[in-house]
Amino acid sequence: MSLLQVTDLHVHFPASSGWLGMHKRWLKAVNGVSLSLARGEVLGLVGESGSGKSSLGRAILYLEEIRSGTVSFDGVDITRGNRCDIQRLRHETAMIFQDPYAALNPRMKVGEILAEVLQVHHRLPIEQRTDRVMELLRLVGLPKEMVSRRPHSLSGGQCQRLGIARALAVEPRLIVADECVSALDVSIQGQIINLLLKLRQQMNLALLFISHDLSVVHRVCDRVAVMYMGQIVEEGPVEAVFNRPHHPYTAALISSIPQLDPSKPLPTHPLPGEPPSPLKLPSGCMFHPRCHLALPACAKTPPPIRSLQNRRYSCVLDETQF
Ligand SMILES: Nc1ncnc2c1ncn2[C@@H]1O[C@H](COP(=O)(O)OP(=O)(O)OP(=O)(O)O)[C@@H](O)[C@H]1O
Ligand SMILES: [Mg+2]
Q1: Which residue in 104, 195, 243, 249 has a CA-CA distance of 20 to 30 Å to 255?
Q2: How many whole angstroms from 289 Cα to the centroid of ligand 1?
Q3: Residues 44-87 pLDDT 10s
Q4: What tens digit of pLDDT does each residue of 284-304 get?
Q5: Residue in 35, 61, 99 with CA at minimum distance from that of residue 175
Q6: What angle in degrees, to the nearest 10, is found between the helix axes of 186-203 and 156-168?
Q7: How far is the centre of ligand 1, averaged over its atoms, from the C-alpha of 29 (Å)?
Q8: What global pTM score does this model have?
Q9: Of all atoms in ligand 1, which is nearest to the CA of residue 57?
Q10: Mutate to test the pocket of ligand 1, among 17, 27, 231 (most ligand atoms within 8 A of CB)
Q11: Alpha helices of 206-300 — where are they, by DSSP H?
């Protein structure tokens, strides 16, 4: 059984338009997503800005209102769950954010930030909290002197280590990491990624790793899900998807990774234009207005979902035509 099973999930946000905002409309940020995550697995979630990655990540942790669909964590459907199930989810999951400073209380010292989580989640008696705080600092590679510092006196990388320590304090089985290295220098990014991979191995953590950066996802993840306009258009083992994408959107995203090698040719079909307005979703396949392979049928009917061994993608073209 998967640790996490998401089925046909929809997350809508209210949006007004028209004169004086009289027309109430809904923005479909997550539009029928299904995915699963095994224990200890790292799933990358990629896609352009606004594709719904953060909304999906937050909805999985029940931090966003779910319009319809189910999210099962360890076999329990939390969308139908009682307070007890949701509390359990809170105890077994955590989130790491893009901006580590913004997520930390600037008035509290590092030790207090971690001790607070231990108090709330584990009701750990005060005498055991100090030991656990020190252990958490050691786990994420922060020197113990940091315990009495405040977040503003830490570097970006140190702050993100603290963000990870705080996430680990709940002893989670699933972490949603939302662009957790995007704000850091490349060399620090590497350190934080190595730390996450080490912790994942030590603790059998499952990770939903949300990132714009496909090369980081390639390095970190076992599987990857590609999101476009609130839907997952392709999903599979990271190596297979990156080597031979089956969806034209995935192919365009991959070809837009800047090549370090200047002798390599430029992409033949880079991603054209911008995504459409999420308030006016295209008919048929959401990607058809930007797809260089689109057929007349793509504008009319939603594409079929094709499953091939451990891969899945939604396109009228099968992988031999592509
Ligand atoms: N609280 C909200 N209220 C209204 N609309 C929202 C809200 N949060 C997100 N949206 C909209 O939902 C869509 C998906 O946003 P989301 O933040 O999930 O995308 P994303 O893939 O995480 O983008 P990015 O890569 O820029 O972080 C966007 O059109 C966004 O404007
Ligand atoms: Mg986001």
Answers
A1: 195
A2: 21
A3: 999 999 999 999 999 999 999 999 999 999 999 998 878 888 88
A4: 999 999 999 999 999 999 999
A5: 61
A6: 20
A7: 6
A8: 0.93
A9: 18
A10: 27
A11: 214-220, 238-243, 248-255
